Structure formats: structure tokens, C-alpha cells
Amino acid sequence: MTGPPGVVSQTPAQRQARPIRLGPRSVAALALISAIGVAAFGWPLLAESDSGLAHSRDAPWLFAALLPLLLAVVVATIADTGLDAKAIAMLGVLAAAGAALRPLGAGTAGIEPMFFLMVLSGRVLGPGFGFVLGSVAMFASALLTGGVGPWMPFQMLAMGWVAMGAGLLPGPHRLRGRAELVLLAGYGAVSSALYGLIMNLQGWPYIGGLGSSISFVPGDPLPENLSRFLAYHLATSLGWDLPRAVLTVILVLGLGSTILKALRRATRRAAFDAPVTFHPNEPGT
Q: Which 3 state secondary structure label does DSSP give 7?
């Protein structure tokens, strides 16, 4: 049964199964860590001028607080929905692939091919799996490249948001073909650019030696600090964010159809939502 071009009508039995179905505890854990993440990224803009906060004192505490919360998302998901061996295996494979893709660009001009894989995986496997995958893949890539530091929990959280957002895009069971690729390419471009923007927000207040026109000034009105931040971002990072966005679009449009089919085929074969049945009358039982 078909509808408009690019849209496929499916019965509930034909819909793509997902390895993690978000339940109340999973949603609560995601909402909690996202709220803390927003505060962790954005608090410098609201800091009082006499707060005396410095990155060297603050980052270790954020590092210690965010990582357990990220792990709590996984624990809550397991407790809520059951992350079985098949889902863990798929998570390991995709996280390893994402970690291996990240250093291919060697950080040159913002070229990071892992973004397109996170977007496509989040689309097929859903927001819960996408968040866990993005966080784990970024953690693995940091270990692989020696990029462990105070920025790592922020990178994990931001990449988790990127992959989770892809899982929240409309039409996951109906939209197919070119229309879906265009949607994912557009999302990939926006999310990969926003990733650079919020990661700049995390580091900007602590970078010394900047010109006064783009420096963070604690206690200044929010609009003034925001204008300085945007000027800083445009001056220092536009040459990184645009190539990242362009590469993500190219890879999604060029390889997206093949990878989406492979991911959906693997998910169908894994039969994540198939009930386990026992047959006590079979021989040998």
C-alpha cells in the first residue's frame, strides 16, 4: 500500500523495530541529563561578575558529574526496556565504526565523517539508541585519538543530542527514498554546524588573550555577551563548521540510501521486538 511519492504506508507489523523503546525512566534520565547539559554549556553567559569561576576549577567537577549521568541513561534504559545482547552488539559495532571514522579527517578544516553515520543510525534505530550511540562513539573516539580532556563529556553529550535528534525526525516508518535523504541531509548540515557552535560556547569563556570585542565579560548583559560570542564564533570557527556541514550533506546524499537499507535490514534480522517463546514438549527438553 503506497501513498505520495517517497511515502510508504505500513501496517504496525511492518514497521521498523527499534532496539530501545523509551519508557518513563529512560525519558526522565534523558530529560535530566539534557537539562544539566544545557546548564553546563550555557551557565557562563549568566555568571555573576564576582563569581570567580574558572575552567581549571570547574571542568573536573563537570567531568565527574556528566559521565555518571550518561551511564545512568544506559542503566535506566536497560532497566526500562531491556538492552539485550543483540542491541549491545549493534551498539558496539556502530560505536566502533563511528570512532574509526572520526580521525579520518585528522581534524582538518572540521572534516569529521562520523557525523553522517550518527545521523543515519539515529534515524533507523531511534532516539534512545541514538543518544547512547553518539555518547559511546565519541567516548571511544576520544580514547582512540588521545582526545581525553575536560571537553570530552561535553562532546559526548553534544554528539548524543545529534544522534537522538535524528531519531526524532518525522516519518521514521513512512518516509523513504529521495525525500528522506533530503530531510537527513538538511538535518545533518544543521546539527553538525550547531555542534561546533555549542562546543565553542563551552570553551569560549575560558580562552584568554582574546580581543575585547570578542571576549567573554562576566556579568555583562546577556545580549552583549551573546553578540561577542557570535563574533568569536564567526571569526574562529566558521571555516570548520561549514566544511563539516558540507561533508555531512555529501555523505548522506551519496551513501545514505545504501547505509539506511543495511541498517534496516540488520534491524529486521535482529528482530528486537520478537517475543521469546519456549516449547517444553520438544525433544531433549
A: strand
